[in-house]
Amino acid sequence: MADREEGEIDISALRLHLRDEYAFVNKQKRDLQKDYNTIVSTGDSLLRGLWIAGQQWRNLNRLRGGPKFASECAYTSSLLDSIQFQDGYATVGFKEVKYGNFLRDLRENTEILKSILILADKYNIDTSAFLRTIITSLYGSCLFPVDEKSVLTIVKGIIQYHLVYSEKPLTIFSKDGNSFANILDVLFHTSLPCRAFLVLACREVVFDILLDGSLYWTLEEQELLSVMDVQEVRKRFGEPGSPGTTERIKDHMMRCWVALADTVYALFKKINSSLVCLPDSLIWIVSCFYKSSLKRGFNDGKARQLVMRFFINQVIVPLLSRPQPFIIDTEIRASRVANFNLKKVTLIIQTLVSIEAGDDMSYLSSEARQFYENLDK
């Protein structure tokens, strides 16, 4: 009898204990679900904040490029401050899966993208915004080798189209409606190895030019007098026609020629010494460019000239033309003289490449021809 009562008591206590355990487990589940929702919400907020911070940082770097971007940067900043994120599934519903599958297939099928870009080049359609979106989103700015390989496959197809199959192979050097130039622009501004190489090759010389704004580096006397104010001309050289004015102008021109020659030599020397750090992706593009030129039927010398023109005009020159904020991340505000000198150095480098390639240089003045003839090639 006593054993039966003890058994009943144990069962009753066990039932109460199980009920308490059940209530405790349910409470823990609710707490865990609440914590999970909090973590997800916090993670989303951090992710959105990180994205906005990245965009604001790019916007700040663009603002450092000069006051001409001030209004555009202010407008972009206000848009970023008022941006509203939406749940993709809540907006498009089950179609989100279809969009995801489409983007996945587009990412994996480089032939489709290559065909789209080649067709755009045929009709001179600007693909810069499209390529920037594709490379930075679908291919994640080529951070992973598999993404970089896919982008390089597209680059190879475009190079072969222009150099091997196109009726006008030299259109690959044009800036308008050229997918090849647009891809390079995105790669050089997103790929860390490419940016590191360009900084190593150009930063020192560009800094020297931007910090030295004492003289206008010109090749022609008429150009010198046109870029300087009348008062500055009189201050530096004296009244026109007065004794010694012509000699002072000639002396100034000689100093300009020496400064330009020294800067060009220094830049080429720095580029040459930096080639050991050339990233693998750029080496692959150069190799593909050379092999495609040979496949077109160009001899070895002509193929090397095309590679040189590609490397200087489409790798080095764009960075010299726009050093801020891409490779010169600084608060330096270049003077009018320094900007003029940087443009002049860029033009001289392009002209040297054209002369080396045998292009028609009849448009050059006698003074400019004399300068290029005196340069030690």
From TrEMBL:
Stored Pfam families: RasGAP
Protein name, as recorded: GTPase-activating and VPS9 domain-containing 1 isoform X1
Species assigned in the record: Paramuricea clavata
